[in-house]
Fold this protein.
Amino acid sequence: MAYSNPNYEHLKGAYLFAEVAKRSTQYKQAHPDRRVISLGIGDVTLPLAPAVVDAMHKAVDDMARKESLYGYGPYEGYDFLLEQIVEHDYKARGVTLDKSEIFVSDGAKSDTGNIGDIFCTRNSVLIADPAYPVYIDTNVMSGRSVTLLPCTEENGFVPVPPKESYGLVYLCSPNNPTGAVMNKEQLAAWVSYAKQHGAVLLFDGAYEAFIRDPALPRSIYEVEGAKEVAIEFRSYSKTAGFTGVRCGYTVIPKELTLTGEGGPMNANRLWLRRQSTKYNGTSYITQRGAKAVYDAEGSRQVKANIDFYLENAAIIKKGLDDRGIHCIGGANSPYIWLKCPDGLSSWDFFDRLLDECNVIGTPGEGFGECGKGWFRLTGFGSREDTLEAVSRLNRLK
Ligand SMILES: *Cc1c(COP(=O)(O)O)cnc(C)c1O
């Protein structure tokens, strides 16, 4: 007999995007004459930067020749990419890391989902609500008890450390779905919480490249002492349009020590052991593409793409402000998080926006209890659609 993992029976149905798709399709079928615009997109829409495409083409040519074929690569990633990460993502921000503290991967979803492998299932887990669903679901799959930390309008949707003690804490800044960005003091409060309680912070920085305010931290390691308590996840998905290419990395500083049964265990060593057992490395072609993101031309092109999404987000935010609809985000983030007007529920507002403006967004309650009555729009659309959608907000009754 083969028993299934009973933890999977405790997962909540992932019905958010399916339900959005269902309602949208029904509406379009009933009103074929209306042009429906989606501002619910959680994926990039601009093509890869030309410098990235060039680098990947060259890498394919390398693979086509016997003398320059790359087979299995290092589990942690190629030096040519690790060096760029150390130099540009960290040293430039005053953070000193060693190459051996960085693990290149196929993206932040896998890493935020897999990191649980190195932690005991008895650890208690704290997750800021609303949240990227991966954090909750992967912990439920492995049978850990999860506590949700409410983030609300009152605290600007920024998680505040509780009094109670937890082993693992997931944080995401700039946040998906709320667009809230934590400042240095707010991050520092979590670092001191982690030190006080012996907790580990799992910091998702997938949207770091959208930060334009120089006063805001781009890495949790900009906070003094964070290396002893934090793991950081990064991704080229939103940074460089790699959602379909697949590349990211995870940072585990050497200072990070966990409590083992036979004494202290080094988290970096445990993750290397995990990766070398279950992962055979990110493709050479992909890593060549990622390296180009740091070259002079590549970094300019990638920044221009992010600027474009940020401008879209600013246009949406201004449109909402002009109509007196309260929202946060929309700066240093591609996401705009709005409070549904007239006390509407997330799904009632979804239906009204679709019916009256022919615009699709994402109901906030799909991201957790604290998303009830809130709604997510994104800057990932085209300029034309973004402007058109904003002008249609006037039709809201
Ligand atoms: C998009 C996103 C990621 C990135 O996932 P990849 O697997 O690297 O594409 C990670 N975290 C959050 C919160 C995201 O929205």
